[in-house]
Amino acid sequence: MRIKGVFVIATLSVLAGQAGAQEEQQVTITVEQVGTGTYALFGRGGNIGISAGEDGVFLVDDQFAALTPAILEAIKRVDPGPVRFVINTHFHGDHSGGNENLGKQGVLIVAHDKVRERMSVEQFNEAFNRTTPPSPKDALPVVTFGNTVTFHLNGDEIRGIHVPGAHTDGDTVIYFRKANVIHAGDLYFNERYPFIDLSAGGSVLGMIDAANLMLELANEETTIIPGHGPVSSVKELTSYRDMLVTIHDRVAALVVEGKTLEEVVAAKPSEEYDEAWGKNFITPEQVVGFVYDSIKAHKN
Question: Does residue 58 contact residue 84 with C-beta atoms inside 8 Å?
């Protein structure tokens, strides 16, 4: 039986931003129960996953540094026990910005090998012309892994599965086996087009492979926590995968014809999906550009 509930913890003013850009914003911290002892936390940035129980608190991602006190207060309302682990689904600051604060409190930070590698050196994001400096020591993952990692906590088996070359080159799917919950990180943007970080080793085919992996792990009752957007279902994840496949195939056909990026964008290969998916962070033109550049990069 699926257990669900939504409750607002607080609305607060915080200095929140990324890559050095700070601005005061009203941030509402909301928690939704998605399974036995398993929750999704929404604030600003990537959605957080929580496993809570007798073994302590296990987090998936931690949003921005400025939100750490509010996030920890929200977690205490769910479970007063200590936060023992955080696993980063990838290195982007809206998912790992709280690492330093948690690391200084003794929380063990875990991530794929590539996440530590990228956080250890300066990163340049070509899509947004943004440079991110190396992370401080306390923010770096202390434990890294190659393909998979498993935690046996709170009566559950929590598996981390690396997906190569998708949103980035260091993405991890988190599968709460007994709770029947998947945290997708930015491998899945619900109700919006995805950002594919080509500068960090991402690719459209990797995103499709990641969606297929999650669908293989899931059944009809599985709850999906996306990296961004509301809690989702297998049906919605399937629609997302199908959308990516269709846009990829259409763009690939135009690439074979020798079309330029401008010509491909003008052909509007995503048009039937733009109303549902194209009115948020990533525009239709941007997602077509990501797909085009990804195909060209892997063709050469």
Answer: yes
Burial grade of 81 (CB within 10 A; 0-12, 13-18, 19 or more) = middle
0.90 exceeded by the pTM?
Answer: yes
| Cα Rg of the chain, angstroms | 19
The dihedral built from the CA positions of residue 113, 199, 195 and 235, taken in this order, carries a sign that is negative
pLDDT of 64-77, one tens digit each? 999 999 999 999 99
- What type of residue is 163? V
Q: What percent of the chain clears pLDDT 90, i.e. is strictly above it?
A: 89
Q: Distance of CA 300 to CAs 117, 125, 195, 286, 295, Å?
A: 26, 21, 22, 21, 9
- The domains found in the chain, sorted by start residue, are 5-243 (3.60.15.10)
Judge residue 107's burial from the number of C-beta atoms within 10 Å of its C-beta, 0-12 exposed, 13-18 middle, 19 or more buried: buried
